[in-house]
Amino acid sequence: MTAASPLSIVAVNLPGGIVPAGDLLAVLTAAEAAGIDHVQFGHRQQLLLAVEPSRRWTLLQALAAVGVPGEPYKEAHPNIMSSYVGEDVFYNATWLREGVYKDILDLFDYQPQLKINLVDSRQTFVPFFTGHLNFIAAETSNHWHLYVRFPRAGGLYTWPQLVYSEDVPILSAAIEQALLSTAIDYDGAPATAGARLFAHISATQPLAPTAEASPLLVPTFTLPYYEGFNRSGQQLWLGIYRRNEQFAVAFLQDVCRLCLHTRIGQLCTTPWKSLVIKGIALPDRAQWDTVLQRHRLNVRHAANELNWQVEDRCPDGLALKHELVRYLNEEDVRTYQLCFAIKTQPQTGLFGSIIIRTQAARVGTQYEILYTRDFNPNSRDFVLFRQQVRRDQLGWYLAELCHQFYAQRDATAAPAPEQSAASHNLPLPGAASTPLPRCRRCLTVYDQSYGDAGQGIAPGTPWASLPSYHCPTCEAPATEFEQWHDPAALPEDASIMSP
Question: Which of 13, 107, 183, 284: CA 20 to 30 A from 315?
Fold first, then answer.
């Protein structure tokens, strides 16, 4: 008896996480004909189809026949992400409405090879900085901030000018061509590489004149509850999450048919691998209940199960998530305003304020736990909390880190009334900050506000008083540390100091 061949993965990009119900029904029909009975959504809002290798070409032909190209290599042309899914559901946009999203998406006349995010600055449901080109809505109507994350280099460059909506696809294509054709050397500091990139684009690609970019205001992170039936004005929206990330083709076909029957034109996918249907009329609620009942779907999972990101099609990561969720649930650990990511591979672009990452070990698999210095998942300023943690210890350490988060919140004085608006000027990747000592060998950073508990160094201990200090990661002496002027622009896999 021979072992079964591994399944091939075909990605169907859903630009902006928006898919017409009729198009999705056509894709599902093609999938069903290829012997697929379950599908998944990816963390970039795309649809993932796992097919037998012998049927892969048939599936690609069937998708092409209905005008929906399949991506045989899902990383070759990443899906364009957007925050449209949250509009009029979790927040109310000012100028960035459905028509603006669709106008911009329609202007993309090429398939991007870089990851592109289009997000509203008023929301926290869709990550801001997980793309290579991160367009974030400005206060000025039809204008965007741009933050460039260089491929394989880490760090973010703040584009010095706002970008007009109609120029987003043009600028994206020009930047992609410059970076992928190596017309721009982006090695070194992001600010230096970014300045070279800006000068190159300004000289070769004239764009509509715009104002200089002002500081970006982003809201404090909270993850809205995105499942079940919820009221929005005189209508309902329905969020559907699957614990195993698997959506039955038959169920989604029924969803599409009901959308068409009740005149709901489109569905939305989320970065949390779930589905949102907007605009359900109140009298139609019973029909949606019938579909959920027919397929035995539960739509009220606990909130502390919904704030996790796992790599696409990663059974080990998903199993670990379930273990940790059970532990935190049994211990009744509060996780509100936190989100977690499990990474088994480097550079997967997941979103999280607490990161559990696999770590090489002599025996078995061990893990390291990191968190962003202010627990803001949009930050790239990672702090190493623990290394070489066994799997059975992870839950306990996560609970301790959650307690640390709330202790940190308790220690922060409440803002004055005039400072308590929903949006705050938070530190952004690439922002200027006080220089910190950083190890040249492994990029470990010493921050005197945290000290180094592992070496008995109390918070507040200045670097100048530690001439005999040794790096806790690679044992390099203090003489191997340099002053680092950009602590918010860390490469994704840099190793950072334990508090």
Answer: 13
User: The whole model's pTM is what?
Assistant: 0.82
Q: Say if CB 218 and CB 122 are below 8 A apart.
A: no
457 pLDDT more than 90: no
Name the CA radius of gyration of the chain, rounded. Answer: 23
Distance CA 339, CA 407 (A): 17
Contact 499, 450 (CB under 8 A): yes
Residue (of 22, 98, 492, 41) closest to 256 by Cα position: 22
Q: Please tell me the distance from the alpha carbon of residue 427 to that of residue 375, in angstroms, as a whole number.
A: 12
* Distance in angstroms (rounded) separating the CA atoms of residues 120 and 386: 34
Q: Fill in the amino acid letter for 165.
A: S
Q: Measured between alpha carbons, how far is 77 from 68 in angstroms, rounded to an integer?
A: 14
pLDDT tens, position by position, 142-178: 999 999 999 877 778 999 999 999 999 999 999 999 9
**Chain-centre distance for alpha carbon 136:** 14
Comparing 134-138, 353-357, 466-470, the range with the smallest average pLDDT is 466-470
Which contiguous run of DSSP H or E holds residue 228? Answer: strand 228-232
Q: In this structure, how many other beta carbons lie within 10 angstroms of the beta carbon of residue 110?
A: 11
Q: List alpha helices for 52-204, DSSP H.
A: 56-65, 98-106, 168-180, 190-204
Going by C-alpha positions, the residue among 191, 222, 171 that lies closest to residue 378 is 222
How far is CA 402 from each of CA 105, 253, 343, 499, rounded to the nearest angstrom? 39, 40, 19, 14
In degrees and rounded to multiples of 5, residue 217 shows phi and psi of -100, 120
176-206 per-position pLDDT tens digit: 999 988 777 777 788 888 999 999 999 998 8
How does pLDDT run across 238-262, given as a tens digit for each residue?
999 999 999 999 999 999 999 999 9
Collapsing DSSP to helix, strand or coil, 343 comes out as: strand
Asked if residue 456 has pLDDT above 80, the reply is no
Task: Please answer whether residues 30 and 62 qualify as being in contact, where contact means their C-beta atoms are separated by less than 8 angstroms.
Answer: yes
Give the pair of three-digit tokens for residue 212: 């200089």
Cβ-in-10-Å burial (0-12, 13-18, 19+) of 470 comes to middle
Task: Read off the pLDDT band of 73 (50, 70, 90).
Answer: confident
Q: Which of 115, 128, 127, 119 is nearest to 80 (CA)?
A: 115
Residue entry with tokens 């790239």: 380
β-pairing, 116-119 vs 81-82, is parallel
322, 319, 237, 252 alpha-carbon torsion, rounded to 10°: -150
- Please check whether residue 402 is in contact with residue 304, taking contact to mean a CB–CB distance below 8 angstroms: no
Our separate counts of H helices and E strands in the chain read: 10, 24
Q: What are phi and psi of 303, to 5 degrees?
A: -60, -35
Q: Which helix (H) or strand (E) holds 462?
A: none
The answer to whether 178 touches 201, Cβ cutoff 8 Å, is yes
* Count, residues in the chain: 499
